[in-house]
Design goal:
The complex is a heterotrimer of chains A (359), B (308) and C (370). By secondary structure, chain A is mostly helical. Chain A has 15 helices and two strands. Chain A has a two-stranded antiparallel sheet with strand order 1-2. The two termini of chain C are 20 Å apart. The chains are: A mainly alpha (359), B mainly alpha (308), C alpha/beta (370). Chains A and B meet through helix 1, helix 7, helix 8, helix 13 and helix 14 of A and helix 4, helix 5, helix 8 and helix 10 of B.
């Protein structure tokens, strides 16, 4: 697990430091106040300029002997990174000299809230739809759920988000305002929101959580309203995927001999389906969880842009445009940690759920 | 169909398989819809430059931008600009006929999709086959490498790659190929591993059927079917990914006729010119739906457990 | 076989079952009739595909969805099983008919422990098992067999016995203890350990015993044992058969023992029904059948068993192969392979006649030609 993270950091490092000019590696660490000699010493501290480099101008013009080879830069980079020094943010709408680290973590709770909400929706809709589809095979619930799942799987997320916005903000109106609003993480301007929800204290940075912890019910309501459409958009693809998987593995499980034995014992249909079949059918769905988390963490980029959600996905696009590679590196590594940890949990869970592989 | 009872399929049995498969296909309506849509898309791709002059993909005067005058749909929005001449799907932010742009965009997306899928198949078959067949250190190494790539979401890796490689159509394609190949390597590897267990492999060994190369060819031939099915399903997924990337702005040029690119202009005008996001998105949805239905149908038909 | 006699537990009459498959309609059962008396073991023997399992599944109401019951009746203790609602069928399977299957590896749920797969039967309908469990535990405590008696247990049990409530915690514990005792009675070593184990941790013979235990806890009137020794090694087979023989003496159930192995049939059964291609062709006491087989198929079947004291004879096989049940032979389904077939055989389906007292056969050679 650690090896994967290490290798990934090397990969990202090489991509950003190796394929871009050294000046872009330096950019997050220099302030406008610095003169050339200060900039040169920062360049040396960051590991891009050699100690024998005569001047900052020589460094900029990429003079021979001035630039540290990429693979040697890694040590200094790793040292900086592990001590939390990611330089200053280059993002356009951020105050100057704000550390990238702070910018990232101030926005991350919004993304986490969105991703977790989408995960909850995926499980809450995908698994029951899959089960119903399998137990009512070829009847209308099955057809409905297959449409939902196929549609979810095939629909472009940006389009789905846009359509939801058009329907619920433009067309369905209450009191002259759209039913929901999509301007930020708290709904302030919609037909059914409470427009003055008061204030909350920031414990975690995620609006819903903080609102709950601050015991501010109207704020909870407004922030949940703002969460509905983006979370649904993010979740639609994974709902489609999970429904398919659960449906096919439930159908497979219900075909097995042990179901016949269970029925022959006089057990009720509910017990047969939920205790005997589902326990087996859930295993393939669990193995795909890691993949789904990966997909959710990637999908936030598009969804946050469509809904103007103030999370890291949104910011990563701005970072890409201004070549703030530190931000992108941080984003990638944090996401990788999350995915690797999730896979680990999935492996452990699988061992718990399937007694056959415990040894 | 003649099947060696141990899982191998004798060559002439394949033709009978195909006939049976076509017979099943005729009965399965969804697959037919998928087939129709997929073939239609390919036709459109082939004919697109005949239907629309590519030179039209340029900026037009301000008066033509973001207008709508198709009486069939009334958006119910005030201040919809009416177009001077008739445009079935309105115009985009550059004043071009949206319908024509969509027709020009379909081949672009499809070409990228086929390039990505073909490359992924190639890389997957070669390296996945190698990993599964050789085992040992080679297998471990290849597996670890796929682990690394699978630890970050595809879109993020694609963003980083496009940032460092620059924005152009080839880099877009390469970026997606680089994020896509690990799945195929893994898939091929697991197929080869399960093929290796089958008795016919031992039989070939015992018959002294030449060296490892011949064995490899036999195994690969049997292992490759799920890969092809996955590839059909993935055409839709690649188009979704490409359009997502161009939608967020990682496109070589804003004027490029590409489905996600066309829609990206629409997000700023979502409440004033909704057609700009809706129609390119519907096109993507239909194409992806078509290939998914086709892939699903093919998989259902060739899945031996679901027959009978 | 006229009318339902007092001692008949099961009476199957004229059962016709077809399956809708891709290739066509498989006419699996073509008018099967048999009876099982109280306390007897009826053997059901025949080649693979002759419909033995289908008959058993039909009796228990467990036919798959693509099966259609075209005709016939299954009377269990005087009640018609075919056409029962699912709820009634569930009750039936819980209390009256227990089925034991062939391959315990695929028939046991791999992710649930063995003991749990037995206690769930009782937990599904606690009211049906309450009394028995309470009596069992009281007897156990009084005999001093089980040393781990919890505080106040005796009083709680006494209260429950005279009509008071039994808490679910107590119930579950009693169910567990009862299951362990049943596992012991099927001769599983260390039953407390087996209780916690999962199917893949047990050997084939142990799994089969666990399935038998599953049937025993229900104290059914009828046990349908479908090829229960087929998937086992010969030595284990012998052990399981011995177990069944001993159990038969103790419990009061009737058994339908399905097998294609004549030796197993001969070991345990009181009467035997021979099936071929969806029909019962002969039905007699076991000794009578082996001494005096009447139907040509039975004759061929018995002759084809290799004997240690006689040379292998190439004529001792039945020529031809099992018929296609989508387009079965007309009239008597055995006629294409029958060495004694005559002109009427392809045209008339032979009715079941009593050729000798208690010995029924379905062959035109013995009657039924109008």
């Amino acid at each position: 697990m650690l090896f994967v993270l290490f290798a990934l950091s090397v990969l990202i490092f090489y991509l950003t430091r190796g394929l871009l000019p050294p000046t872009s590696a330096l950019a997050p660490y220099i302030t406008p106040r610095m003169d050339d000699s200060a900039k040169l010493s920062v360049a040396r501290a960051v590991g891009v300029a050699t100690n024998s480099c005569p001047s900052f101008q020589a460094f900029i013009s990429l003079q021979n002997g001035c630039i540290v080879p990429v693979w040697e830069q890694y040590g200094a980079w790793a040292h900086n990174v592990l001590t939390g020094n990611w330089g200053y943010s280059l993002l356009p709408n951020v105050a100057p000299l704000t550390p990238t680290w702070d910018v990232f973590w101030s926005r991350f709770p919004y993304t986490a809230e969105l991703a977790i909400a989408a995960a909850v929706l995926t499980v809450a809709f995908g698994i029951p739809l899959g089960i119903i589809s399998a137990t009512h095979n070829n009847k209308w619930p099955d057809h409905l759920s297959r449409i939902v799942s196929l549609g979810g799987y095939s629909v472009p997320q940006f389009w789905f988000g846009a359509v939801l916005q058009i329907i619920f903000v433009l067309y369905i109106r209450v009191n002259g305002l759209g039913l929901l609003s999509t301007s930020s993480a708290v709904a302030t301007n919609c037909g059914i929101c409470l427009m003055n929800p008061g204030t909350i204290t920031t414990y975690t940075g995620a609006p819903v959580v903080d609102a709950i912890l601050s015991l501010n019910a109207p704020y909870v309501w407004d922030s949940l309203l703002a969460l509905v459409l983006p979370a649904l958009t993010l979740a639609i693809t994974s709902i489609g995927a999970i429904t398919r998987i659960v449906r096919s593995s439930m159908m497979e499980a219900l075909r097995q001999d042990y179901i016949t034995l269970a029925r022959s014992k006089g057990l009720s249909n509910r017990i047969v389906v939920y205790r005997h079949a589902l326990r087996n059918a859930i295993l393939p769905a669990v193995t795909v969880t890691g993949l789904l988390v990966s997909y959710l963490m990637g999908g936030v980029v598009v969804v946050e842009i469509v809904f103007s959600w103030p999370g890291v996905g949104n910011a990563s696009l701005a970072a890409a445009n201004v070549l703030d590679v530190n931000f992108l590196e941080l984003y990638v590594l944090v996401t990788a940690v999350i995915i690797v940890v999730t896979n680990l949990i999935v492996d452990i869970a699988y061992g718990v759920l399937d007694p056959r592989i415990r040894y | 169909m003649s099947q060696g009872g141990d899982g191998s399929t004798v060559a002439h049995g394949r033709r009978a398989d195909l006939r049976y498969a076509l017979h099943l296909m005729r009965g399965n309506k969804l697959v037919l819809i998928g087939l129709v849509i997929s073939v239609g898309t390919l036709l459109l791709t082939a004919l697109s430059h005949l239907l629309v002059n590519p030179a039209l993909a340029n900026q037009e005067p301000l008066a033509l931008r973001l207008c709508w005058n198709n009486p069939v749909i009334n958006w119910g929005i005030t201040n919809v600009k009416t177009c001077p001449t008739s445009y079935p799907l309105g115009t985009d932010a550059f004043g071009r006929d949206l319908l024509q742009m969509i027709i020009l965009a379909v081949p672009v997306d499809l070409q990228i999709a086929f390039e990505v899928v073909a490359s992924a198949i190639l890389i997957g078959v070669v390296f996945g086959g190698l990993a599964g067949y050789a085992g040992g250190l080679v297998d471990e190494a290849i597996l670890r490498i796929t682990d690394i790539f699978l630890a970050i979401p595809a879109i993020l890796l694609a963003i980083v790659l496009i940032v460092v490689l620059g924005r152009s159509l080839p880099t877009l394609t390469y970026a997606i190929i680089i994020t896509w190949w690990p799945y195929y390597v893994r898939l091929m590897r697991s197929q080869v591993l399960s093929e290796k267990q089958k008795p016919y492999v031992e039989r070939l060994h015992a018959m002294g059927a030449g060296g490892p190369r011949i064995l490899y060819i036999h195994i690969v031939r049997n292992a490759v079917y799920p890969i092809l099915i996955q590839a059909t399903l993935d055409i839709g997924s690649v188009i979704l990914t490409v359009s997502a990337l161009t939608f967020i702005g990682l496109t070589p040029s804003p004027l490029l006729p590409e489905l996600g690119n066309l829609a990206s202009q629409g997000i700023a005008n979502i409440f004033t010119a909704p057609w700009l996001i809706i129609f390119p998105g519907v096109t993507i949805l239909l194409i992806s739906l078509g290939f998914n239905l086709l892939g699903d149908g093919i998989r259902d038909i060739f899945d031996p457990r679901l027959r009978r | 076989m006229t009318g339902l006699q007092k001692s008949e537990v099961l009476k199957v009459s004229n059962l016709r079952v077809s399956f809708n498959t891709y290739a066509g309609e498989v006419k699996a059962l073509d008018g099967v009739g048999l009876t099982v008396r109280k306390g007897e073991v009826l053997g059901l023997v025949g080649e693979s595909g002759c419909g033995k399992s289908v008959t058993a599944l039909a009796i228990a109401g467990l036919l798959p969805p693509n099966a259609a019951i075209i005709d016939g009746s299954v009377m269990l203790d005087g009640r018609e099983v075919l056409g029962m609602t699912e709820k009634d069928l569930q009750r039936l399977r819980l209390e009256e008919v227990a089925m034991v299957f062939q391959d315990p590896m695929t028939f046991l749920n791999p992710v649930i422990s063995v003991g749990s797969q037995i206690t769930e039967i009782m937990s599904a309908r606690p009211e049906l098992f309450r009394e028995r469990l309470v009596e069992f535990r009281i007897a156990q405590i009084e005999k001093g067999e089980e040393s781990t008696e919890t505080k106040g247990e005796r009083t709680r049990l006494g209260a429950a016995r005279s009509g008071g409530r039994l808490s679910s915690k107590d119930f579950n514990r009693l169910a567990k203890l009862y299951t362990i005792s049943v596992l012991g009675s099927v001769r599983l070593p260390e039953p407390e350990k087996v209780f916690r184990m999962f199917p893949h941790e047990l050997s084939g013979g142990m799994r089969q015993r666990a399935m038998i235990a599953m049937a025993l806890v229900r104290r059914p009137k009828l046990i349908l044992a479908d090829e229960i020794t087929t998937a086992l090694d010969v030595t284990v087979q012998a052990q399981v058969l011995q177990l069944l023989r001993d159990l038969k003496a103790q419990i009061d159930a009737s058994v339908v023992l399905i097998s294609h192995d004549l030796a197993v049939i001969a070991e345990l059964c009181d009467r035997v029904a021979v099936m071929y291609a969806g029909n019962v062709v002969e039905l007699a006491d076991v000794g009578e059948l082996f001494r005096n087989p009447l139907h040509p198929y039975t004759v061929g079947l018995l002759a084809s068993v290799p004997r240690a004291d006689a040379p292998l004879s190439s004529e001792a096989t039945i020529k031809g192969s099992v018929p296609d049940l989508i387009n079965p032979p007309t009239g008597c389904r055995f006629h294409p392979r029958c060495p004694k077939a005559f002109d009427k055989c392809p045209h008339i389906k032979p009715p079941m006649v009593e050729a000798a007292p208690g010995h029924f056969v379905s062959c035109l050679l013995y009657g039924g030609v109008p």
